[in-house]
Amino acid sequence: MELAANIALAVISVALILVVLLQSGKSAGLSGAIGGGAEHMMGKAKARGMDALLHKLTIAFAILFMILAISVGLFI
């Protein structure tokens, strides 16, 4: 059981890293921060398509990672 949890933790860790790296950047420095705030106020900053899917996958993998990390820690 402990071996399976360790393997699952490794797989989820790699998947989380890949999903985070695949996401596009939300700003381009200072000009992006100023423009991004204006777009957010106007309602244009909605995640669509692949960005929305990657965002949801990041949340799911992060939750799984935390649960598995805690359970592996309790096994030791």
TrEMBL record:
Membrane topology: Multi-pass membrane protein
Keyword Lyase appears in the UniProt entry: no
Domain of life assignment: Bacteria
Signal peptide residue numbers: none
Main location per the UniProt record: membrane
Transmembrane region(s): 53-75
A Pfam family of this chain: SecG
One GO term describing the cellular component: plasma membrane
UniProt keyword annotations, A-Z: Cell membrane, Membrane, Protein transport, Translocation, Transmembrane, Transmembrane helix, Transport
Alphabetical GO biological process terms: intracellular protein transmembrane transport; protein secretion; protein transport by the Sec complex
GO MF: protein-transporting ATPase activity
Cellular compartment(s): Cell membrane
Entry function: Involved in protein export. Participates in an early event of protein translocation.
Family as reported in the entry's similarity comment: Belongs to the SecG family.
Protein name, per record: Protein-export membrane protein SecG
Annotated source species: Polycladospora coralii
